[in-house]
Amino acid sequence: MTAWIAALIALCVGTRAPAVDPRVPDAIAAVAHLHPLLFDGRRDVVKTAALLTAISHREGHFDPAAVGKDGLGESYGLGQVHETNLKRLHVTREEMLDPYKNLLATAQLLEESLRVCADAPAEERLTEYAAGRGDCTCPEGVADSRNRTALMEYLLRARPVFWAESRETIMKPSHERH
Fold it and tell me: What is the pLDDT of residue 8?
Protein backbone atom coordinates (compact mmCIF):
# COMPACT_ATOMS: atom_id res chain seq x y z
CA MET A 1 0.00 0.00 0.00
CA THR A 2 2.91 2.35 0.67
CA ALA A 3 3.98 2.23 -3.00
CA TRP A 4 0.41 3.09 -4.06
CA ILE A 5 0.37 6.04 -1.64
CA ALA A 6 3.76 7.18 -2.99
CA ALA A 7 2.16 7.16 -6.47
CA LEU A 8 -0.71 9.31 -5.14
CA ILE A 9 1.81 11.73 -3.65
CA ALA A 10 3.62 11.91 -6.99
CA LEU A 11 0.33 12.84 -8.66
CA CYS A 12 -0.03 15.71 -6.19
CA VAL A 13 3.50 17.12 -6.33
CA GLY A 14 4.71 16.13 -9.77
CA THR A 15 8.06 14.70 -10.72
CA ARG A 16 10.08 17.90 -10.36
CA ALA A 17 9.13 18.61 -6.76
CA PRO A 18 11.59 18.06 -3.92
CA ALA A 19 11.59 14.59 -2.42
CA VAL A 20 8.86 13.93 0.13
CA ASP A 21 9.94 12.70 3.55
CA PRO A 22 9.87 8.87 3.22
CA ARG A 23 8.03 8.60 6.54
CA VAL A 24 4.95 10.25 4.99
CA PRO A 25 3.62 7.37 2.83
CA ASP A 26 4.36 4.91 5.65
CA ALA A 27 2.46 7.08 8.13
CA ILE A 28 -0.52 7.46 5.79
CA ALA A 29 -0.67 3.67 5.28
CA ALA A 30 -0.35 2.91 8.99
CA VAL A 31 -3.03 5.39 10.04
CA ALA A 32 -5.41 4.32 7.26
CA HIS A 33 -5.14 0.73 8.55
CA LEU A 34 -5.43 1.67 12.20
CA HIS A 35 -8.15 4.31 11.88
CA PRO A 36 -10.18 3.73 8.69
CA LEU A 37 -12.87 6.37 8.31
CA LEU A 38 -16.54 5.80 7.59
CA PHE A 39 -17.59 6.36 3.97
CA ASP A 40 -21.07 5.43 2.76
CA GLY A 41 -21.79 3.55 5.96
CA ARG A 42 -18.65 1.38 6.01
CA ARG A 43 -15.03 1.75 7.05
CA ASP A 44 -12.76 2.09 4.02
CA VAL A 45 -8.97 1.86 4.28
CA VAL A 46 -8.37 2.82 0.63
CA LYS A 47 -10.52 5.96 0.76
CA THR A 48 -9.00 6.88 4.11
CA ALA A 49 -5.49 6.63 2.63
CA ALA A 50 -6.52 8.76 -0.36
CA LEU A 51 -8.15 11.34 1.92
CA LEU A 52 -5.12 11.50 4.23
CA THR A 53 -2.96 11.98 1.13
CA ALA A 54 -5.22 14.81 -0.08
CA ILE A 55 -5.25 16.43 3.37
CA SER A 56 -1.46 16.10 3.72
CA HIS A 57 -1.01 17.78 0.35
CA ARG A 58 -3.48 20.64 0.84
CA GLU A 59 -2.76 21.32 4.51
CA GLY A 60 0.93 20.58 5.14
CA HIS A 61 2.28 20.24 1.58
CA PHE A 62 3.66 16.82 2.62
CA ASP A 63 6.00 18.56 5.09
CA PRO A 64 5.83 16.94 8.55
CA ALA A 65 7.50 20.04 10.04
CA ALA A 66 5.04 22.52 8.51
CA VAL A 67 3.83 25.22 10.90
CA GLY A 68 0.98 27.49 9.87
CA LYS A 69 -0.28 30.57 11.66
CA ASP A 70 -3.68 32.20 11.85
CA GLY A 71 -5.27 34.75 14.13
CA LEU A 72 -5.90 32.12 16.79
CA GLY A 73 -2.47 30.47 16.91
CA GLU A 74 -0.44 27.83 15.13
CA SER A 75 -1.21 24.61 13.25
CA TYR A 76 1.24 21.76 12.90
CA GLY A 77 2.37 19.05 10.54
CA LEU A 78 0.79 17.21 7.65
CA GLY A 79 -2.80 17.75 8.76
CA GLN A 80 -2.17 21.22 10.20
CA VAL A 81 -3.64 20.24 13.57
CA HIS A 82 -4.42 23.52 15.32
CA GLU A 83 -2.96 24.18 18.74
CA THR A 84 -6.48 24.63 20.15
CA ASN A 85 -7.00 20.88 19.61
CA LEU A 86 -3.82 19.64 21.28
CA LYS A 87 -5.07 19.39 24.85
CA ARG A 88 -8.27 17.52 24.07
CA LEU A 89 -6.40 15.15 21.73
CA HIS A 90 -3.76 14.59 24.46
CA VAL A 91 -0.86 15.45 22.17
CA THR A 92 1.97 17.95 22.24
CA ARG A 93 3.28 20.36 19.64
CA GLU A 94 6.39 18.21 19.28
CA GLU A 95 4.30 15.10 18.66
CA MET A 96 2.41 16.92 15.92
CA LEU A 97 5.67 17.21 13.97
CA ASP A 98 5.87 13.40 13.78
CA PRO A 99 3.99 12.27 10.63
CA TYR A 100 2.38 9.23 12.22
CA LYS A 101 1.18 10.98 15.38
CA ASN A 102 0.01 13.98 13.38
CA LEU A 103 -2.03 11.82 11.03
CA LEU A 104 -3.56 9.92 13.96
CA ALA A 105 -4.75 13.23 15.38
CA THR A 106 -5.87 14.33 11.91
CA ALA A 107 -7.90 11.13 11.50
CA GLN A 108 -9.61 11.79 14.83
CA LEU A 109 -10.51 15.31 13.74
CA LEU A 110 -11.70 14.09 10.34
CA GLU A 111 -13.90 11.48 12.01
CA GLU A 112 -15.41 14.18 14.24
CA SER A 113 -16.11 16.33 11.20
CA LEU A 114 -17.70 13.45 9.31
CA ARG A 115 -19.93 12.81 12.33
CA VAL A 116 -20.80 16.46 13.08
CA CYS A 117 -21.51 17.21 9.41
CA ALA A 118 -23.24 13.88 8.67
CA ASP A 119 -26.35 15.63 7.33
CA ALA A 120 -24.35 17.73 4.87
CA PRO A 121 -23.72 16.60 1.28
CA ALA A 122 -20.82 14.11 1.13
CA GLU A 123 -18.40 16.64 -0.35
CA GLU A 124 -19.09 19.07 2.53
CA ARG A 125 -18.64 16.69 5.47
CA LEU A 126 -15.09 17.90 6.11
CA THR A 127 -16.27 21.48 6.69
CA GLU A 128 -15.93 21.32 10.46
CA TYR A 129 -12.36 20.00 10.08
CA ALA A 130 -11.44 22.62 7.48
CA ALA A 131 -13.02 25.58 9.26
CA GLY A 132 -12.09 24.57 12.78
CA ARG A 133 -15.09 26.47 14.04
CA GLY A 134 -17.35 23.67 15.21
CA ASP A 135 -19.96 24.11 12.50
CA CYS A 136 -20.76 22.79 9.04
CA THR A 137 -21.79 26.02 7.34
CA CYS A 138 -18.69 28.24 7.22
CA PRO A 139 -18.30 29.20 3.52
CA GLU A 140 -14.50 28.88 3.59
CA GLY A 141 -14.77 25.50 5.30
CA VAL A 142 -17.34 24.30 2.75
CA ALA A 143 -15.03 25.32 -0.10
CA ASP A 144 -12.04 23.63 1.55
CA SER A 145 -14.07 20.47 2.21
CA ARG A 146 -15.18 20.30 -1.41
CA ASN A 147 -11.58 20.85 -2.55
CA ARG A 148 -10.12 18.08 -0.39
CA THR A 149 -12.93 15.66 -1.23
CA ALA A 150 -12.49 16.38 -4.95
CA LEU A 151 -8.76 15.73 -4.68
CA MET A 152 -9.42 12.43 -2.89
CA GLU A 153 -11.84 11.37 -5.64
CA TYR A 154 -9.36 12.44 -8.34
CA LEU A 155 -6.58 10.40 -6.73
CA LEU A 156 -8.83 7.34 -6.52
CA ARG A 157 -9.76 7.67 -10.22
CA ALA A 158 -6.22 8.45 -11.40
CA ARG A 159 -4.59 5.57 -9.50
CA PRO A 160 -7.29 2.97 -8.88
CA VAL A 161 -6.54 -0.04 -6.76
CA PHE A 162 -5.87 -3.00 -9.07
CA TRP A 163 -4.51 -5.51 -6.61
CA ALA A 164 -5.24 -9.12 -7.50
CA GLU A 165 -6.41 -9.87 -3.98
CA SER A 166 -9.56 -8.46 -2.48
CA ARG A 167 -9.36 -5.10 -0.73
CA GLU A 168 -10.03 -6.71 2.63
CA THR A 169 -7.13 -9.14 2.25
CA ILE A 170 -4.61 -6.73 0.75
CA MET A 171 -5.31 -4.15 3.43
CA LYS A 172 -4.42 -6.48 6.29
CA PRO A 173 -0.90 -6.17 7.70
CA SER A 174 1.31 -8.76 6.02
CA HIS A 175 1.63 -10.90 9.18
CA GLU A 176 -2.18 -11.41 9.21
CA ARG A 177 -2.56 -12.54 5.58
CA HIS A 178 -1.40 -16.12 6.01
Answer: 96
